[in-house]
Amino acid sequence: MIHDDVVFDGPLGHTEGADEYMEGLRGIARIVKGADPHKVIVDGDDVCIVYDLLTDVADPIPTAGWYRVRDGRLAELRVFFDPRPLMGGG
Fold it and tell me: pLDDT by residue (tens digit) across 55-67?
């Protein structure tokens, strides 16, 4: 479902390529329990999802994700949220 050259940008890091992206997902999966979606906006190959990030270490964190799809697979992802609750500062 992801391109080999997928690019991720977010408050906790940047990855390039499927292997780096999957390694990052495995890391964050240790604390994330899920997401509570509120809104999905689609504009061609761009998808924006507004949701609350649900974790084991913080109250729900308001989050927005901007996904760019190419050839039916995820090519680029940018995530926006305040990371302080995950670091004990929020």
Answer: 999 999 999 999 9
Instruction: Provide the 10 A C-beta neighbour count for residue 85.
Output: 16
**Which residue from 29, 11, 32 is spatially nearest to 82, judged by alpha carbons?**
11
Strand partners, 37: 51
Q: Strand 2-10 vs strand 73-80: parallel, antiparallel, or unpaired?
A: parallel
Q: How is residue 79 written in tokens?
A: 């995530």
Closest residue by Cα to residue 18 from 65, 68, 76, 71: 76
Q: How far apart are CA 39 and CA 62, in angstroms?
A: 12
Enumerate the H helices of the chain as residue ranges: 18-28
**Secondary-structure percent of the chain, ordered helix, strand, coil, rounded to 5:** 15, 60, 25
pTM, two decimal places: 0.89
CA distance 42 to 89: 33
